[in-house]
Design goal:
Layout lengths: L15 H11 L4 H18 L5 H18 L4 H21 L9 H7 L4 H12 L5 H25 L13 H9 L5 H5 L5
Length: 195
């Protein structure tokens, strides 16, 4: 095959319209729409768990926290733990692809991705210190969801009009070089498997 040929990348969503609808519902302020989007993502994971982008999983985890927070059935301590798990997963999974054979500080890796340092500090508090307050958890969730919307979801909207969502598969060496240089594009996130 020619290296310029497009290779199909199997995705769990039916088409771009479904993708766009889920994104709109996730970022709506209506909990019922957000629940519908979370159910669609659960269906995607049931279809192709290994093809669900990490950014989609992280967004779903964080939106689920907000929905459960709004319904008021959990006490503050339970919410802090729920937000904490989602925020720790976000920082760990999003920075994981930048980690080389020699461990590098998460602050530096997150900085390469324009993730605020205080979010990494919040993750550090969850894993190594006292649990942060619910107020800080909510703020962290809001900031990370904004980051995901800007750095991942909105880039997907501008990334082509093909309903089949054909993606060029990058040569492994090119991808490693982009990651090392901290230059991740939307395709990089799109190809991250859920682990």
């Amino acid at each position: 095959k020619k290296s310029s040929e497009k290779k199909r990348h199997v995705v769990a969503w039916i088409n771009k319209a479904e993708w766009d609808q889920v994104m709109d519902q996730l970022y709506s302020k209506d909990p019922s729409l957000q629940r519908f989007a979370l159910n669609r993502i659960s269906a995607w994971k049931a279809r192709y768990a290994s093809s669900t982008p990490v950014a989609v999983d992280c967004t779903a985890d964080l939106v689920r926290c907000q929905v459960l927070d709004r319904v008021g059935q959990l006490d503050a301590d339970d919410l802090v733990l729920l937000y904490g798990a989602a925020l720790v997963r976000f920082v760990n999974l999003i920075t994981e692809r930048q980690q080389g054979k020699i461990a590098r500080p998460l602050r530096r890796l997150a900085g390469n991705l324009n993730i605020p340092e205080w979010v990494v500090n919040l993750r550090h508090d969850f894993t190594h210190r006292r649990l942060p307050t619910l107020k800080w958890c909510r703020k962290g969730c809001k900031v990370v969801l904004e980051w995901l919307q800007q750095e991942y979801w909105s880039r997907q909207l501008g990334g082509g009009t093909n309903d089949n969502w054909d993606l060029h598969e990058d040569d492994e060496d090119e991808e490693e070089m982009r990651v090392r240089n901290g230059k991740l594009n939307s395709d990089t996130f799109c190809l991250l498997p859920f682990k």
